[in-house]
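Entry 14: structure prediction run for TauD/TfdA family dioxygenase. Input pasted below.
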Amino acid sequence: MSSSSLAALPEADLRPGTPPILRVEAPAEPTRWAAENRDALRARVTEHGVLLVRGLDLRDTERTAAVFAALAGDPMTEREAFAPREVKGPGLYSTTAWPANQPMCMHHELSYRLEIPGLMLFACLRAPGQGGATAVADAEQVLQALPSALRERFEREGWMLTRSYNDEIGASLEESFGTDDRAAIEHYCHAQDIDFAWQPDGSLRTRQLRSAVVTHPVTGRRCWFNQIAFLNEWTLAPEVREYLVDEYGADGLPFNTRFGDGSPIGEDIVQLLNATYENHTRREPWQAGDVLLVDNIRTAHSREAFTGEREVLVGMAEPRRLADCAPTPEASLR
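Run finished. Output tokens:
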């Protein structure tokens, strides 16, 4: 236990509609402050599922990496990225390359992997002109708010992610798998329960079946945990979806989601999921220097559309095995 305790920190601001905000005086040594208060800060994240720390005044990559390490230890390396990121250092990334005028709807980072980050860390080095909040939603509340029949079907069947890798849209093979070597990619897919097929043009198509609902390893509560809505074709802007279908065909979209039995997920269901998220969304505009800690299983996050220059760095930590979170279904595609 560090010399600081939960009581040593000021109370977080718990205003409705915003994540908990902890306001602190800018420390002379942010990394040391983070190390000394790590246990207390992490206790707040366990309590609330998310914590925005305002006042650390992080403005550069090196200091951000050091603070992240002090808060969370060794970072995770991203694998199976759905879109490119810029690597800023070991385990430190830019936000996902995504058009500024299009929102990224609620999701749990890398929830389609067998090893998932338990903790997400975000640091705002430059706040956007307007919009661009990293909003959050409580996954326990979202699960309970969904219609029981839909919730039970996803819990029974899970969800399926389909991907088509090409050199134009989304993450490349090397960006996603860390290599473009076929044998290494096939080895990875076998180890991660990913069904794959190389196409005549050399592109790769994959399918993976994952749980839509898991048990939180600390709280023991069931959480809606997936990227069903975010990676579904009906979340795309209509003109983007139309272009991709025309260009690559309905089965060749860079990513799409289905029910666990392989049947399509209709636009009405995607709209329902996104509306349920919105009903439980909390948001706070970024200020330069902010740090946001997100329990990736308990709390979904999004990125809202924005204008101006926005620079947010991302770290992932505390790897958790999906198998340790009581997933359903447990069977893979194989």
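Notes: Residues 1-7 have pLDDT under 50 and may be disordered. Will compare against the previous run tomorrow.
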